[in-house]
Amino acid sequence: MPKDTGIGASPKRREDVRFLTGDGNYTDDINVHGQAYVHFLRSDVAHGRITSIDTAEAGAMPGVVRVFTGKDFEGVGSIPCGWQVTGRDGKPMQEPAHPVLAQGKVRHVGDPIAAVVADTPAQARDAAEAIMVDIEDLPAVVDMKAAVADGATKVHDDLENNLCYDWGFVEDNRDAVDKAIKDAAHVTTLELVNNRLVANPMEPRVAVGVWEKGTDNYTLYTTSQNPHVIRLLMGAFVLGIPEHKLRVVAPDVGGGFGTKIFHYAEEAFCTFAAKACRRPVKWTASRSEAFMSDAHGRDHVTKIELALDADHNFTAVRTETYANMGAYLSTFAPSVPTWLHGTLMAGNYRTPLIYVNVKAVFTNTVPVDAYRGAGRPEATFQLERVIDKAARELGVDPIELRRKNFITEFPYATPVAVEYDTGDYPATMDKLSEIADLSGFDARRKESEAKGKWRGLGVNCYIEACGIAPSNLVGQLGARAGLYESATVRVNATGGITVMTGSHSHGQGHETSFPQVIAEMIGIDESMVEIVHGDTANTPMGMGTYGSRSIAVGGSAMVRAAEKVVNKAKKIAAHLLEASDSDIELKEGKFSVAGTDKSVAWGDVTLAAYVPHNYPLEDIEPGLEETAFYDPANFTYPSGAYACEVEVDPETGQVTIERFAAADDFGNVINPMIVSGQVHGGIAQGVGQALLENCSYDSEGQLLSASYMDYAMPRAADLPMFTVDHSCQTPCTHNPLGVKGCGEAGAIGSPPSVVNAVIDALHSGGCKIDHIDMPLTPSRVWAAMTGAAAAGHGTAEGRSVGGEV
Amino acid sequence: MELKDSREVAAERPVVWAAILDPEVLKACIPGCTELEGSVEEGYAATVVQKVGPVKATFKGTVTISDMVEPTSLTITGEGKGGAAGFAKGGADVTLTETDGGTRLDYDVEAKVGGKLAQLGSRVIDGFAKKMADQFFTRFQEAVEGPADPDEAPEAEETGGKKGWFKRLVKN
């Protein structure tokens, strides 16, 4: 019997009412009296030296308040990077300066050169056109392998070269891995590209900077997944504003997918300019600006080798990856291809030896950083693709090959430094087999063939490390931040509860799911609980929402704070009931003395806390409000098995997804409806990557796919009805709710199943093709079918112009 | 993008050569050119209004003629900034060869765009560049040898044979 309240129930999302009726309060809805508007003049060349900027004409145009250039920011800090990776040589990564406005050089199309603040957005735009900039063109560095070749043009003149770092993991395993691959009965090798993506949240980025003359206090309203992180990075490292003089507010956020984690130059600009202009300054990105200024995602070129023994046991995995950093280091960019990627290369399998090499490269492109899954989709894609290829080479069933190598005992310490606490991979595979009706595939294939279509089945597993992250561990790995979460549970006099959480929601439904937990703990109605988030002025210092961490880390902090509240309330109840607090039980919103019919209602206790007339003031303070900071003991390890069935039209190379099923193990589930929605969205994005989306640069570093004419987002018609299941539950062992997180799984698990399915379909049609790089557009599939794949396909050279087949 | 093409012009090579170096001819031939000032030696300042895919812009920039080997070859390069629309750059290496019917122009065109033009117009830019080159050399041909339209031929005959305005100019 499904519950209708508390943990495990699926109440409809309360925030959706305002989102769907136009009553949301997004950053662009915030207008501060007297505000001016900024327009950024952005570079239209990928690489060049600024020889002169003449702002005289622009500055004299109607409505212009002030024109800013890099000169105005000489005394201002660099946009900081939050993670330092150490290379194989023991040296820290090369870390270039990242100015708010370009200093001397522009390094990617979209790099801001100057900014006009004016009374209206149109005036700012017009005046920006009148700024005369002379740029001496420099050769653009686009291709990653060419970027690290000797004599390549340097993106940053003051760095040694374009190599950010050369990272090996686990370096001590390297020789043993090499030997295992040399001695293996079979080695499968695959070279592939994880295509560059643009996150494209529905709401573009917006920033409103406010400075109050009377107090010298600053406020920044911004589209952020983590306002406290922005306050710390921007206040301490860029503008030198102490945190107590700076408030950062991220109201309703219309999608983030990682791209709103990072601290961006525009936020610092608006905050700085608000004081410089003595007026609030607002910036709203156009979609075109979003394409060339939001951090991009993925963009890896990888060679993976899988070694197997004669019994088809995996004996070793070796990878070499080139990871694009873009022109500057975005906030968490260095961690994505390393610690969020290398540590997942064991996947769901008992591979004893693993070595991962990653070369992170600077290029004249938009910075690349975390995008839904961040490193884990890249790891999953290469591993699940190479396993599929190995099964084909060995003539064995790809599902059986996976099953044979599953990890089955937990906890399990992988050779890549993480310990999986729980999981049951055969169970999710069994569940998948059932919900995807894998046994009916052959019949469906025949039906497709009768229609003249080739049908393919792709199955894969995934594991991810989320619930990010144990602070002491990530500190050792180079994080320049702790990754705990915080919550304050404030009980009001009449019994209602306000939870102030450091987590934030950019579509996850926290306002609905977090109250379900509190309601379950206390036994009150969910409507008595309100979630406050997104404002540094009224929430405790928290690290925000990304890495599927909200319920696992933020929810745990809330539980800890609520436990403190309940413990104190029990003492008050014990006083009111004249009993010992160890005998007090809280159930269904009532405190009772165990074994008696004596009880006192939740509301009576909360009232007593704030109207302490009859109250143990000598023992406890009045009031009922507690804060907790929760630092996880380990990552959480959601896992699952996905199946995709496609039809390929042999006449055109068009791929259509006919069926998609996902069996996930997220541990305990708070709101199954919200979890299903998260999986649906993740799969849609994963299918988008696999079939449609591609961020493409030409060899001059011009961004070619910068509008929806050229960048194909998935639409409803591109997707079938999904079958999702999360009934396989192995609860997390180290957080109080036993939850694992579900936000990224769909985007991690789905790309390999789509590609595996297409390759399977092509084989069924007699096209013995090993691999096609994503996105599997009709032209790419057709080219592969007809043997017309472009030269350099699947390599760094081949991907440098992503628009080619 | 790059493209190679050639075209026969019914005029003697020195006439064709002189036409290319004439700023009035250049102005008339560059599609969308509204202003062109300067000289072969100093280069020209030009204003060109063009629509590339969805982006319409006024490009202000320079046109330069270089690598002149009279009367066989030269290079025409142009470079313009279109403000928020981005920039366009292009060049054509032109070779003149005498033929039975007059002069053959071989041209080797390279064009680049940047900024919004590349972002919004990349799919149409090849076609656009070909169209620009076609228009340029068609207009040039017309300027030198007269319009291809046969209806105008009798009139041309009355005034002393089929001639383009440039050819008439140099013959008078």
From TrEMBL, chain A:
<dbReference type="Pfam" id="PF01315">
    <property type="entry name" value="Ald_Xan_dh_C"/>
</dbReference>
<keyword id="KW-0500">Molybdenum</keyword>
<dbReference type="InterPro" id="IPR037165">
    <property type="entry name" value="AldOxase/xan_DH_Mopterin-bd_sf"/>
</dbReference>
<dbReference type="GO" id="GO:0016491">
    <property type="term" value="F:oxidoreductase activity"/>
</dbReference>
<dbReference type="Pfam" id="PF20256">
    <property type="entry name" value="MoCoBD_2"/>
</dbReference>
<dbReference type="InterPro" id="IPR016208">
    <property type="entry name" value="Ald_Oxase/xanthine_DH-like"/>
</dbReference>
<dbReference type="Pfam" id="PF02738">
    <property type="entry name" value="MoCoBD_1"/>
</dbReference>
<keyword id="KW-0560">Oxidoreductase</keyword>
<dbReference type="InterPro" id="IPR008274">
    <property type="entry name" value="AldOxase/xan_DH_MoCoBD1"/>
</dbReference>
<feature type="domain" description="Aldehyde oxidase/xanthine dehydrogenase a/b hammerhead">
    <location>
        <begin position="21"/>
        <end position="139"/>
    </location>
</feature>
<dbReference type="InterPro" id="IPR036856">
    <property type="entry name" value="Ald_Oxase/Xan_DH_a/b_sf"/>
</dbReference>
<dbReference type="GO" id="GO:0005506">
    <property type="term" value="F:iron ion binding"/>
</dbReference>
<protein>
    <submittedName>
        <fullName>Xanthine dehydrogenase, molybdenum binding subunit apoprotein</fullName>
    </submittedName>
</protein>
<dbReference type="InterPro" id="IPR046867">
    <property type="entry name" value="AldOxase/xan_DH_MoCoBD2"/>
</dbReference>
<dbReference type="InterPro" id="IPR000674">
    <property type="entry name" value="Ald_Oxase/Xan_DH_a/b"/>
</dbReference>
UniProtKB/TrEMBL annotation, chain B:
<protein>
    <recommendedName>
        <fullName>Carbon monoxide dehydrogenase subunit G</fullName>
    </recommendedName>
</protein>
<dbReference type="InterPro" id="IPR010419">
    <property type="entry name" value="CO_DH_gsu"/>
</dbReference>
<dbReference type="InterPro" id="IPR023393">
    <property type="entry name" value="START-like_dom_sf"/>
</dbReference>
<dbReference type="Pfam" id="PF06240">
    <property type="entry name" value="COXG"/>
</dbReference>
<feature type="region of interest" description="Disordered">
    <location>
        <begin position="143"/>
        <end position="172"/>
    </location>
</feature>
<feature type="compositionally biased region" description="Acidic residues">
    <location>
        <begin position="148"/>
        <end position="158"/>
    </location>
</feature>
